[in-house]
Amino acid sequence: MKLLVTNRAINISIRTLDVLLLLAWIVTFFYSVLCFSELFFIKEPHDVTVMRKDAVILDCQAHGESPIAIRWLKNGVKVVENDRVYILSNGSLSIPEVESRRGDKSDEGFYQCLAQNKYGAILSQKVCLTIASKYHTGVVYKHHME
Fold it and tell me: Name one GO molecular function term (predicted).
């Protein structure tokens, strides 16, 4: 059996190989894009008004490829967890007893949830935690944050 190789056959084979390599690159590229697990919020926080010493939970649950790290910001600064303010296992922020002190010690403010995985990060809408005051008349007045 003889194998006849011509210039035309070699050119066609090289073109076929180029096309196959290009096709393999395209498939690999789109496969990696399609396998990308988009990060999105299942639950986002909402504005809330509470009385001083009330408990509050600001919801935040994100979906995407694990692991997903959840952090919270208050007035644009990272919330530091402690015995009064902590992040639940589902990502929500818990404040068992809201404080209305002056300055940074008050829990009143604007909060955002930051979810992050290896593909990127998403930031929730900014929500306002307002602490209401009750005066002698029984009317509830709100302290609005600017």
Answer: cell-cell adhesion mediator activity
